[in-house]
Specification:
By secondary structure, the protein is α+β, with helices and mostly antiparallel strands. It has one domain. 40% of the residues lie in helices and 28% in strands. A four-stranded mixed sheet has the order 3-2-1-4. A hairpin with an 8-residue loop joins strand 2 and strand 3. The longest helix is centred in the C-terminal third of the chain and has 30 residues. It is flat, with a radius of gyration of 20 Å. The model has no long low-confidence stretch (mean pLDDT 84).
Length: 86
């Protein structure tokens, strides 16, 4: 998850929450990931600002990932086809 810089200057910062699922101990915990918004008055604002990206930059990253997924899928399908011939 990335720190997103909003048009108004606020930052949307990833915030993870761990909660007990009420299940057996080996089944782990529920993990939720969300964003919280902070402004210039927040103590962490100046530290997080340099690593932030705009919403447009995030959209570009998502597009690149999808395009990369197509190549990865093609390579996997070729590998799977080669394995079936053995």
């Amino acid at each position: 998850m990335y720190v997103i810089r909003l048009p108004d200057g606020r930052l949307r910062v990833p915030h993870s929450v761990l909660a007990d699922s009420g299940r057996e101990p080996d089944e782990g915990q529920i993990i939720a990931q969300a964003y919280v918004e902070i402004g210039p008055g927040d103590p962490d604002y100046e530290r997080l600002l340099p690593e932030s990206i705009t919403e447009e930059e995030m959209a570009d990253k998502r597009r690149e990932w999808r395009e990369g997924d197509e190549e990865l899928l093609r390579v996997f399908e070729e590998y799977k086809a080669d394995q079936g011939e053995d």
